[in-house]
Amino acid sequence: MRAVFAIAVLVVSSAALPLAAQDAAEQPAEQSAEQPAERSAEPPAAPSAQQGAEQHGERLAERRAERRGALPRAAEGADVDFDRVAALRAQGLDLPAVRLLEVAREAHPAPRVSAELGLAYLGLGQAVDAETHLAEAVSAEGDAWIDVHRAGLLLALRHARASIGVVVVACEAEDAAVWVDGSNEPPSPCGEPLRAAAGDRVVEVRAPGFRSARTEVRVTPHETVEASATLSPFDCFTPGMEHMGGEQGGCCWPDQTWLEGACSGVPECPDGSFARGHECAQPAPPPPPPRRLASFHVSLLAGLASFGRTDTSLFRPSVPAQGTSVSLGPRAELRVGFKLFELFGLELTAGGTMTDVPRWLDCPGGACAERAATAYTLDAGFLFVAHTDPPRIGGNIDLHLGLGARPYVRTTFDDDGGGSELTATVVPAELGASIFLADFFSIDVLGQAELWIPWEYCGHGADGARYCLGGDALGIELAWTALAGITFHAE
Predict the structure, then answer these.
(1) Are 308 and 477 in contact (CB under 8 A)?
(2) 94, 285, 339, 441: which sits with the fewest CB atoms below 10 Å from its CB?
(3) Strand, coil or helix: 436
């Protein structure tokens, strides 16, 4: 192959010699024909030597362009260093020449670049790629460089086509594709012919979800060689990667190959990632916004409250038998608070609960109750709150946990026997969420589990006598509260 390739290069190179020799022979004649005219003219101010040389060069370029058919620069491959390409190929460095020409072809897809690229691939023994580029080059019409070198290019093209065979690989895996070394052609599905350069070739079959398989085949020019491959199931841990390299291979990204025990080549990375060397990397997440030192908020909440036990007396005194119990109802609450570094906060609360006040009496056969007046419970307290980090889950939701106290809760009411009152301390534990509709506005939903610790209950018996019971005679009760409302935020 090297011998035929050298003959093709020699034909291509020698075809350019007549034009170069003609230019060299014409330059002295042109200079001698122009000198008498310059001597006979006696201008008032003689042009400088630099101006004369520029004018002479322009006239010489115009005459050469006329004799050569005025070949445009773009047709020869603008900004392509063909001298360097020729020097690399003369030293047997066809691979660097291919890389240089591939870059040039992306920028200037001229016929000459395709021709030079085909010759370089032929020097590498990659007949399939050489045939593709040479066929593209000789099909160009009206290109002066191709017309001059067409004979040598056709000779190289015939040699490339004479060195190509066909490989057909049979396999049962779905979506399997076949690669053949020594070719840049895209892979073909199993069972379809794939062109390959003559010689001993390695065929690799890949399929998503299977371990790749490799086999060696001997490709003969103008003949079809058949092979088969059996793939075993195998899943790569990283989505988007495929197994390559056969039994001794590994998982690589698309557009890569398994070479010397590692993935080689620039990978085709999935959306949201980029190629970093031989790997696909995720872009660094944007830095979090700086935390605010402090923020303030005001909340308006409403909901329901209830004790855990509703079928028995809550604060029913054990002695005497007569007394009064309290059951909770609707509740409204106002909160004013602040957060530090969007993590910790303190809230001051003020609220009220509508209460139903049944009065427990001595009835035949035991105690019974009758409904007395409805009263209102007023309270004030505080709540220590811890917020999630990052502050907003999912971009607009802020979760928090709180623990606080309402130290003095007083319920007063009037019944038939006179005024009565209950005082207690409430310890709430809270879990809530703030759904931000804007930076300054959110909808809040929260729930509380409450521990009611009574201090004293004072009421009137059936005889109208007033009595008071201390905390040791009253029971501790559990209650719950569910609230929802709106919150306004400010930095």
Answers:
(1) yes
(2) 285
(3) strand
Categorise residue 265: left if φ over 0, alpha if ψ from -120 to 50, beta otherwise. Answer: left
Beta 164-170 vs 224-228: how paired, if at all?
A: parallel
Could you tell me the CA-to-CA distances from 279 to 38, 251, 263, 269 in Å, in that order? Answer: 69, 11, 9, 8
Residue 192 C-beta-side C-alpha neighbours within 13 Å: 10
Query: Span 164-281: which CATH code?
Result: 2.60.40.1120
Task: Please give the torsion angle defined by the CA atoms of residues 83, 89, 93 and 94, in that order, rounded to the nearest 10 degrees.
Answer: 110
Structure tokens at 405: 């106290």
- Tell me how far apart the alpha carbons of residues 127 and 160 are, in angstroms, rounded to a whole number: 5
| Cα–Cα distance for residue pair 40/42, rounded to 1 Å | 6
pLDDT along the chain (491 residues), means of 10: 47 42 40 39 41 41 40 47 84 85 82 88 85 88 87 89 87 82 76 85 85 86 86 83 82 85 86 86 78 85 79 44 58 91 88 69 52 72 84 71 90 62 88 88 93 80 71 77 92 78
Q: How much is the pLDDT for 27?
A: 41
Q: Give me the CATH topology for the region 294-490.
A: Porin (2.40.160)
The pLDDT, as a whole number, for residue 250 is: 86
Q: For residue 352, give the amino acid letter.
A: G
CA angle (478, 484, 487) in 5-degree steps: 125
**Structural tokens at position 31:** 């200079």
pLDDT of residue 475: 72
What's the CATH class of domain 1-25+76-162? mainly alpha
Angle at 133 between CA 131 and CA 138, to 5 degrees: 90
Q: Report whether 229 contacts 208 (CB < 8 A).
A: no
Specify the 3-state DSSP secondary structure of 481. strand
2/6 Cα distance (integer angstroms): 6
> What residue has token string 């603008």?
78
Give pLDDT, residue 32: 39
The whole-angstrom separation of Cα 476 and Cα 317 is 12
Give the list of residues 6+ apart from residue 1 with CB closer than 8 angstroms, or none: 122, 125, 159, 163
Listed by start position, the domains of the chain span: 1-25+76-162, 164-281, 294-490
Which pLDDT value is given to residue 415? 55
3-class state of residue 129 by DSSP: helix
